[in-house]
Amino acid sequence: AICAGDILNPLPTTSTNAITGTWAPALDNTTTTTYTFTPTAGQCATTTTLTITVNPSVTPTFNPVSAICAGTALSPLPTTSTNGITGTWAPALDNTTTTTYTFTPTAGQCATTTTLTIPVNPSVTPTFNPVSAICAGTALSPLPTTSTNGVTGTWAPALDNTTTTTYTFTPTAGQCISTTLTTMTITVHPYPLVDTIENITALNSYELPVLTVGEYFTSNNGNGTHLYEGTQITTTQTIYIYAETGTEPNICSNESSFKVTIIHKIEYMHFFTPNGNGENDYWNLLNSDAVKSGVKIHIFNRFGKLMAQINPNSLGWDGTYHGIALPTSEFWFQVELIDGSIQKGNFSLLRK
Question: What's the predicted TM-score (pTM) here?
Answer without folding.
Answer: 0.47
